[in-house]
Automatic annotation (TrEMBL):
<comment type="similarity">
    <text>Belongs to the protein kinase superfamily. ADCK protein kinase family.</text>
</comment>
<dbReference type="InterPro" id="IPR050154">
    <property type="entry name" value="UbiB_kinase"/>
</dbReference>
<protein>
    <submittedName>
        <fullName>Uncharacterized protein</fullName>
    </submittedName>
</protein>
Length: 172
């Protein structure tokens, strides 16, 4: 998978968690999923209609990944998105893993589990693309600080660090 597609996948998780459907469409475009010439405003409107009413618990969407995937796929069919094999494989794998995790723990939330990994990857990747995503977490379109989004990002990132230090301490 190309590096820019990896970054776009990470960004898509951030944008789903933040409910930024226009940015999600941009991510899909960056992954070469959206065909050139597609009306991006219409695609964004369809995402807003399909996913705009998501409930959030502690800043994380309370929705199953497989449900989000189903809505993305229905929009993909409507607009004849290209689905590269790597993208389909990753999405199907995540949906399968979610099913296994939910079978073991009915309260499992894929986005809550994935977000610390995304935070870590973005904080350690010093590329221009990663900085652009971090900028979108910190600032809105009017260049105002988005305190809630930034706080969630930092809380989850520091929780990951706290858990890592706990495991290191526990192992001796």
């Amino acid at each position: 998978m190309k590096k820019e597609h990896q970054i776009a996948m990470l960004a898509s998780i951030i944008h789903i968690v933040n409910g930024d459907w226009g940015a999600l469409v941009y991510d899909l475009t960056s992954m070469d999923v959206v065909r050139p010439g597609t009306n991006l405003r219409s695609v964004t409107k369809d995402f807003v209609d399909a996913l705009g009413e998501v409930n959030y618990i502690d800043g994380i969407p309370d929705i199953k990944f497989s449900l989000v995937l189903g809505k993305i796929l229905s929009i993909a069919l409507k607009y004849q998105f290209r689905m590269p094999p790597y993208y389909t494989l990753v999405l199907r794998s995540l949906a399968s893993l979610e099913g296994l995790a939910v079978a073991a723990d009915q309260k499992f939330q894929t986005f809550r589990a994935a977000y610390p990994y995304v935070v870590k990857k973005l904080l350690y990747d010093n590329s221009k693309a990663a900085r652009r995503i971090l900028y979108s977490v910190v600032f809105n379109n009017r260049r105002e600080i988005q305190w809630k989004k930034m706080l969630l990002f930092l809380e989850i990132g520091s929780f990951q660090k706290l858990m890592l230090s706990f495991y290191i301490t526990a192992d001796g």
